[in-house]
């Protein structure tokens, strides 16, 4: 399997893993000038790149936050995790939201997100009248919490 990257803009930076064990490839902002993301604002940050996964069609490219930007400055993907389908050939954009109370300026070439490639499953969808029974059943949020602690109200 190979990740083919096409530079759409001269100043685009190829994605790369920070270490041998890094799961994600850093995505960098392809900007001509700094871009200020105001508090509470959502912007689309261009990467100047398009991608193709060669040799595997049952996978997806996922865009995740960089932990340093998210935890220190409140900048994270607006949709929590961006999905880039393997048949998409347009520019990869990072929809970024500023969750903090301070503006943040993204600099040209700054690493803004990470790209993770993962397998997907696409089973046939069948409508049924019943599903198999489980111990949990229809128990929802917190249904498996066995502590006696009461929620803070």
Per-chain topology:
Layout lengths: L1 E6 L17 E4 L6 E3 L4 E5 L2 E6 L4 E7 L1 H7 L1 E3 L4 E4 L7 E6 L5 E3 L4 E9 L34
Antiparallel strand pairs: 1-5, 2-11, 3-10, 4-9, 6-8, 6-11, 7-9
What would you note in describing this structure?
- With 153 residues, the chain is mostly beta strands.
- It has one domain (2-119): Distorted Sandwich (Deoxyuridine 5'-Triphosphate Nucleotidohydrolase, Chain A).
- Helix content is 5%, strand content 37%.
- It has one helix spanning 67-73, and strands at 2-7, 25-28, 35-37, 42-46, 49-54, 59-65, 75-77, 82-85, 93-98, 104-106, 111-119.
- The strands form 4 sheets. The chain has a 4-stranded antiparallel beta sheet. The chain has a 3-stranded antiparallel beta sheet with strand order 4-9-7. A two-stranded antiparallel ribbon has the order 1-5.
- The chain starts with a strand and ends in a 34-residue tail after the last strand.
Please give the CATH architecture: Distorted Sandwich
| Total count of strands | 11
- Averaged pLDDT, please? 90
Structural class: mainly beta
CATH superfamily: Deoxyuridine triphosphatase (dUTPase)
CATH topology: Deoxyuridine 5'-Triphosphate Nucleotidohydrolase, Chain A
Unreliable residue stretches: none
Read across the widest sheet, the strand sequence of neighbours is: 2-11-6-8
N→C terminal distance: 51 Å
Global Rg: 20 Å
CATH level 1 class label: Mainly Beta
SSE succession: EEEEEEHEEEEE
Oligomeric state of this protein: single chain
Helix content: under 10%
Task: Please work out how many helical segments DSSP would assign.
Answer: 1
> Biggest β-sheet, characterized?
4 strands, antiparallel
* Shape type: globular
Number of domains: 1
Strand share of the residues? 35-45%
């Amino acid at each position: 399997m190979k990740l083919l990257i096409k530079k759409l803009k001269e100043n685009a930076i190829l994605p790369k893993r920070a270490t041998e064990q890094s799961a994600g490839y850093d995505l960098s902002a392809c900007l001509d000038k700094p871009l200020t993301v105001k508090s509470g604002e959502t912007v689309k940050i261009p990467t100047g790149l398009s991608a193709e996964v060669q040799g595997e069609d049952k996978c997806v490219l996922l865009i995740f936050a960089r932990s340093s930007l998210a935890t220190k400055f409140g900048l994270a993907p607006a949709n929590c995790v961006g999905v880039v389908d393997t048949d998409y050939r347009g520019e990869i954009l990072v929809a970024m939201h500023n969750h903090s109370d301070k503006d943040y300026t993204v600099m040209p070439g700054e690493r803004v997100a990470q790209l993770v490639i993962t397998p997907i499953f696409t089973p046939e969808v069948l409508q049924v009248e019943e599903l198999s029974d489980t111990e949990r059943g229809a128990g929802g949020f917190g249904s498996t919490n066995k502590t006696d602690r009461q929620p803070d109200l």
